C-alpha cells in the first residue's frame, strides 16, 4: 500500500505541475517581464500623435524674458570680443563695428522691414510675439553692458560661452513659438513665394555676412565666430527635435 500511495502522490504532483497557471499569476509574471518593453518611447511616436501640453500665458512671458536675456548676454560676449553671429544679429553686430552705434538700436531698426512679411507669412499672433521679443532683446542688449563689467575676456571663451548662450536663448524662444525675426522670416517668405529653400537662403545670407566680416575682423575673429555658430546650431539641433518637447503656445 505504501508504494501505491507514493505512486498516486507522484501522479498528482505531475498533474499540478502540468496544469496552466491562473490568469492573475500569468498577468503578474508577464507584467514583470514586459514592463520595460511596454514603456512608451516618445521618439518612436509620430509628432502629431503626441499629447499636447499648452503653455500658460505667464509661462510664455517668462520664456520670452529669459530667452531674450540669454541672447543679450551672448551678444555682449560677442561684442566685447569682436565676434560675429549669423542672421539679423550678425548684421547688427557688423553695423555696430562699422558705425560705432549700439547693437540694440541697430538690431531693432534692421528688423522693421520684416514685420510686414511676418504678418503675411505667420499671422498677427506670431508677428506680435516676434516684435515684443525683438524689442526686449534690443533693450536688454542696450542695458547688459551696464550690468556686466567685463575687464578681460578670452576670445575663445567668448566664442564658446557666447554661442552657448545664443543657442539656449533661441531654443527657449522657439519652444514658445517666438522668433527674433529678420532673415528667418525673409527665408520662409521666399520659400513660400518662389520655392527657394529656406535653409539655403539662410545659409546664403550667413555666408554673405561672413564675407563682409573680412573687411572688419581679423582672421582669428572670423574663425572663432564660425566656432560660436557651430556651437549655437548644435545646441538647437540636438534639443529641438520632433517628440522631444510637447509644449505648445
UniProtKB/TrEMBL annotation:
Transmembrane annotation, as ranges: 61-85, 97-118, 130-148, 154-174, 194-216, 222-239
Keyword Transmembrane helix set for record: yes
Keyword Metal-binding attached: no
Topology of the protein relative to the lipid bilayer: Multi-pass membrane protein
Compositionally biased region (Basic and acidic residues): 1-11
Region feature (Disordered): 1-51
GO cellular-component term (any): plasma membrane
Keywords in alphabetical order: Cell membrane, Membrane, Transmembrane, Transmembrane helix
Localization terms from the record: Cell membrane
Name of protein: Uncharacterized 5xTM membrane BCR, YitT family COG1284
Natural source organism: Onishia taeanensis
